[in-house]
Design a protein that fits this description.
The chain is an alpha/beta fold. About 30% of the residues lie in helices and about 20% in strands. The protein has twelve helices and 13 strands. The strands form four sheets. A five-stranded parallel β-sheet has the order 9-13-12-10-11. Strands 6-5-8-7 form a four-stranded antiparallel β-sheet. The chain has a two-stranded antiparallel ribbon with strand order 1-2. The chain is elongated, with a radius of gyration of 21 Å. The two termini are about 40 Å apart. InterPro entries: PPIase_dom_sf, PPIase_PpiC, PpiC/parvulin_rotamase, Rhodanese-like_dom, Rhodanese-like_dom_sf. This is Peptidyl-prolyl cis-trans isomerase. Keywords: Isomerase, Rotamase. GO terms for molecular function: peptidyl-prolyl cis-trans isomerase activity.
Length: about 300
């Protein structure tokens, strides 16, 4: 359920001060605690992304079945899927799927009791849902996918040095935390690609076999001008193909997104990144720029 949540005192003022400014998308997430753990003064990512966290971001004009995008559920709260981890020492930047429980600074004894209960087999998420003072308790303490530079230093250090699935504790300016790394993955990448650079790649048959090409324009636009090998996923039909995107496409493959002028495709590219697609490229200027700067045989409209 998505609803406004008030952060318990004394952290409310901190959350208000760190709340990201308005962005072009509406972002639906009850992971409000993410903002209160961010570094003081840190600039928010373009679409509250890091997402590559499990934040559902889409243009306000699109309606869809939000329940279709939920993580696998057990009664009461969402639960993450355990994913395979990249090899350590690979030199690749990591993102961590984190859940935590937060208590006040003076409640360290309570934290010790929680650690004992976890050692006896209780679940951190269940305890967070009942006892945490962080609004993320509504999600069983789930903060989503995070990467270095996005959390306060003490929390970040504890998270990025913690063994997978082991519950550890740390202290920040907000109180005492128990945190657990549920999974890790390589950091997702979103880049712009210029029409001339894309054209060079587009002429290589091997390139076409190794990547995924998406055109998010509407069918009437595609009828006016198109490029071969692109799969058409109209943005207005997002509610139809969005829930099945990770089965329709491979998140591990390079994915290129195109529209008319590059704006709708950028929206979709950022959303794909938030869904775990590892390397996403937006065609700058869209098919119009491609036609006017690279291939004049492609019609303009």
């Amino acid at each position: 359920m998505l609803r406004a949540t008030r952060l318990p005192s004394p952290a409310a003022a901190t959350v208000s001060a760190l709340r990201p400014s308005l962005v072009p998308f509406q972002t639906f997430s009850s992971l409000h605690c993410y903002s209160h753990l961010r570094k003081l003064g840190a600039s928010p990512p373009p679409l509250l992304n890091p997402l590559c966290r499990r934040t559902l971001t889409y243009p306000p004009s699109l309606a869809y079945n939000r329940a279709s995008f939920s993580m696998p559920m057990v009664p009461g709260r969402p639960r993450p899927i355990a994913l395979s981890s990249p090899a350590s020492g690979s030199g690749v930047e990591r993102e961590l799927l984190v859940q935590h429980l937060l208590v006040k600074e003076g409640d360290e004894n309570l934290l010790v009791d929680f650690q004992r209960r976890i050692a006896r087999g209780e679940d951190l998420g269940d305890l967070a849902a009942e006892y945490s003072i962080c609004p993320s308790k509504q999600e069983g303490g789930l903060l989503g996918w995070v990467k270095r530079g996005q959390m306060v230093p003490e929390f970040e250090e504890a998270a990025f040095t913690a063994p997978l699935n082991k519950v550890v504790r740390c202290k920040t300016q907000f109180g005492w935390h128990l945190l657990q790394i549920l999974s890790e993955r390589e950091e997702c990448v979103l880049r712009e690609i210029q029409p001339k650079d894309f054209h060079v790649k587009f002429q290589d048959p091997e390139f076409l076999e190794e990547v995924q090409l998406i055109d998010v324009r509407e069918p009437d636009e595609v009828a006016k001008a198109s490029l071969p090998s692109f799969e058409v996923l109209p943005l207005r039909q997002f509610g139809t193909w969005g829930p099945e995107i990770t089965t329709k496409l491979d998140p591990q493959k390079d994915t290129y997104v195109m529209c008319h002028h590059g704006m709708r495709s950028l929206q979709v590219a950022k959303w794909l990144q938030s869904q775990g697609f590892q390397r996403v490229y937006n065609l700058t200027g869209g098919i119009h720029a491609y036609a006017t700067t690279v291939d004049p045989t492609v019609p303009t409209y």
